[in-house]
Write a structure and sequence with these properties.
heterotrimer; A mainly alpha; B mainly alpha; C mainly alpha; B: 5 helices; C: mainly alpha; two-stranded antiparallel sheet
């Protein structure tokens, strides 16, 4: 396992941590945090996919034409994903606020009126 | 244009409708040969319940929520388990998702 | 006209998007102006979709590629396509027609003047956004673009589910649905990242040429993530539990657009399986995974529907079980297509499954819309609290009965035609599955008869007495779906030949045509 492959391991760890928070924590806010951690792990994975050893930022203007550059597409993908994650987290948290207003609790085990 | 063939058979709804209407017409024609001399709203047309009065419809009406009680009760062993599976807790839903993901991974990786 | 046809794929996304963001501004001019504006946007979108479909079929059903931002020419030395492309083939056009029909019915229904509590412009805007996302998912030929539209539909759908903020249950349902949708979207993104890292491209056609030439494990993990993520969004058991919550709590016509959203996710699943991966990785096991999920969905969906007390949840479980029919048929088709000798019944299975998609959209649409009218009229969702509405709402009763009989597969309606194809082709593969599917259909009829009996028959509770007529636009939207149900039922051969067969062909042997449309056009 070379040093360059550590980010992949870290991103997998982040996804697993986020899933752990989603599965085993009962507080709704902690579940939202878990989703956010999974997003971070996936974004880290996307950025790492584009890395090229010894590469510089993927900008052509005023740069050496023969330099090694990292791939720009994963950076665009990650930016899009970060913005989507922002919107998703905001929506999730607003639902949590309304749930708290109605149920007076944030315990996932108690918020199960819709069951069966 | 109106029919489809499935490779093992064919289905033509226009032909089916014509057949249905034809049989219905035949049934109505046969009905016309029946006995028309009966007195309405007397004992000749009311349901016979061993001499008892027929209760009002609203007292007999089984509301929809209880309609298939016997069927559901017969399958109660199945329903108890499957209904208990729909807990309503979000963590269980995510657990089922991740569990299915794991099973799919195992099947895919193990198959050649 | 040529310019309109040339840009039609992107106009299908652009026009509702413009409408969605313009609605709050237009709403300042008054409620009637807003309603007509939304109606005009919906009619325009449906017209563009119909025009695109008509010219597509007239030109021989070969895939159309629309490059966003210009032509496809590449600088020298590049092998992969570099722009985002919309690729329209037989299956995409079929799904567009379904979405346009559902969108038109939903918008007509929502624009009624029955007194609504609050937030009218926001509901219209969200519904148009959801329609944008669904069209985008069905048109795009680029994997990451698919993910972006997937997230657009997630956000719009969950906002619609949680629209009625005064009900605690809708917030609970919205939170659950949003978490699950976000999780599946993230797994799809992970798979897209894996495929990009492996092959260096995001275009579906390009990836389809390269698939199989890299590490098998990475491809298989990506396939598993995509398969499970999209199957969850479609509502396959055991990941279906959000569906009754979401469909049940969404207001009025939003439920049918959510059903169209699930069908679009199913389309994504088919596109990934048939076009992207093809027969590359153990297709028989994939097919049997699909068939197993589908069988469980059919059974659990229909049996759980039998014990529901809430009418919308009951119909939602019915919708979940119908998704199982589509997955079953396409799984059988995939198994037959990739077997050692491809069997003909696979093509019939694909035809049946795809035909069932449009039948299901129309019938479930009828049921949900009629249920919405009943809930408004009765003031309650509980089956115990309704009764005897057949005398005052004749049309709604008829529409509900039509939708219920059609979905359960009663001749001569459209559900029977598609289900016949599914039964007969599944019987060839495995008789047990066909018998289970038939029994589930009978049980589905029982389920809807139960709802019908509760809502429309019997004596009426005292508080429901008094005249109240159903708004005309609601009846018109239900009538539109009913016309589709009857027309597809009486002339199934015409519609199967015209619309369904090109779509089934796109899956059965259209993979090469899909790939060549992009890769051959790359020379400039």
């Amino acid at each position: 396992m070379t040093l360059g492959q550590m980010p992949f391991v870290v991103s997998a760890l982040l996804v697993v941590l986020g899933l752990y928070a989603l599965l085993f924590k009962r507080n709704l806010i902690k579940m939202v945090i878990g989703v956010s951690i999974i997003e971070t792990g996936v974004n880290l994975f996307l950025v790492t996919v584009g890395y090229r050893a010894g590469g510089q930022a993927p900008i052509y203007t005023y740069s050496d034409p023969s330099a090694v550059r990292v791939l720009p597409t994963p950076q665009a993908l990650t930016l899009t994903s970060i913005v989507i994650g922002l919107a998703t987290t905001a929506l999730l948290l607003s639902f949590v606020v309304f749930i708290h207003r109605h149920y007076q609790t944030l315990d996932a085990e108690k918020i199960k009126e819709l069951k069966g | 244009m109106t029919g489809i063939t499935t490779g093992f058979g064919a289905w033509n709804p226009i032909a089916w409708l014509l057949l249905f209407l034809g049989v219905a017409a035949a049934a109505l024609i046969l009905r016309r040969f029946g006995n028309k001399q009966y007195k309405k709203n007397t004992g000749q047309t009311k349901a016979f319940l061993s001499g008892n009065e027929e209760p009002e419809a609203s007292a007999l009406h089984v509301r929809g929520a209880h309609l298939y009680w016997g069927f559901v009760d017969g399958l109660s062993a199945y329903y108890r388990r499957v209904r208990a599976l729909h807990t309503g807790v979000l963590s269980d839903y995510v657990a089922l998702f991740v569990g299915t993901l794991g099973v799919v991974f195992i099947v895919l990786v193990l198959s050649r | 006209m040529n310019a309109l046809l040339h840009h039609a794929p992107v106009l299908l996304v652009a026009v509702p998007l413009l409408g969605a963001f313009a609605v709050p501004l237009v709403a300042k001019l008054g409620a009637n102006v807003r309603r007509s504006f939304v109606g005009i946007i919906a009619l325009l979108t449906t017209a563009i979709a119909g025009y695109l479909a008509a010219s597509f079929y007239a030109a021989g059903a070969s895939p159309i590629v629309y490059v966003l931002g210009g032509r496809m020419s590449l600088p020298s030395g590049m092998v992969a396509p570099i722009r985002i492309m919309f690729e329209v083939d037989g299956l995409s056009v079929f799904m567009i027609l379904i979405t346009a029909l559902v969108a038109l019915a939903a918008v007509l229904y929502t624009s009624s003047n029955w007194k609504e509590r609050s937030g009218g412009p926001m509901k219209d805007s969200l519904m148009l956004l959801l329609i944008v996302g669904i069209f985008g998912m069905e048109l795009t030929g680029d994997l990451f673009n698919f993910f972006v539209f997937l997230e657009i539909t997630s956000i719009a759908a969950c906002s619609l589910v949680g629209f009625r903020v005064w009900r605690g249950r809708s917030q609970e349902a919205a939170f659950k649905v949003m978490t699950l949708y976000t999780l599946s979207g993230l797994f799809v993104l992970l798979a897209v990242g894996l495929l990009y890292g492996q092959y260096g491209g995001l275009n579906i056609a390009y990836l389809a040429t390269m698939i199989g030439s890299g590490t098998a494990l990475v491809d298989k993990i990506a396939l598993g993530l995509l398969l499970t993520g999209l199957a969850m969004k479609a509502g396959a058991v055991p990941m279906h539990m959000w569906a009754p919550d979401a469909y049940g709590e969404a207001p009025g016509a939003a439920s049918i657009v959510l059903v169209a959203n699930s069908q679009a996710s199913l389309y994504g699943l088919f596109r990934i399986l048939f076009t992207l991966y093809g027969s590359a990785y153990s297709p028989q096991s994939i097919a049997w995974i699909l068939i197993a999920l589908a069988a469980a969905t059919i059974i659990v969906g229909v049996t759980m529907a039998l014990i529901q007390r809430d009418i919308k949840r009951l119909i939602a479980f019915g919708a979940v079980s119908q998704i199982g029919y589509m997955m079953l048929a396409v799984g059988v088709g995939f198994a037959a297509m990739t077997a050692l000798e491809p069997a003909d019944f696979g093509f019939v299975a694909l035809q049946g499954g795809l035909f069932h998609m449009i039948n299901d959209a129309a019938c479930i649409g009828l049921l949900f819309l009629a249920a919405g009218v009943v809930i408004r009229r009765a003031g309650t969702r509980d089956l115990q609290g309704m009764g005897g509405l057949a005398h005052s709402m004749g049309w709604t009763t008829g529409f509900f009965m039509l939708g219920a009989f059609a979905l359960a597969g009663m001749p001569p309606l459209n559900g029977f035609a598609s289900k016949l194809m599914i039964y007969e082709s599944t019987f060839k593969l495995s008789p047990v599955l066909a018998i289970l599917a038939i029994l589930a259909s009978i049980l589905l009829l029982a389920v809807f008869l139960r709802a019908f009996q509760a809502a429309f028959l019997g004596p009426r509770p005292e508080r429901l007495n008094g005249p109240q007529s159903v708004p005309a636009s609601m009846l018109v939207s239900m009538g539109l779906l009913a016309i589709v149900v009857i027309a597809f039922g009486l002339f199934p051969g015409f519609f199967v030949d015209k619309i369904v067969t090109p779509a089934a062909n796109a899956l059965w042997n259209g993979r090469d045509a899909y790939i060549q449309a992009v890769m051959l056009g790359m020379g400039g």
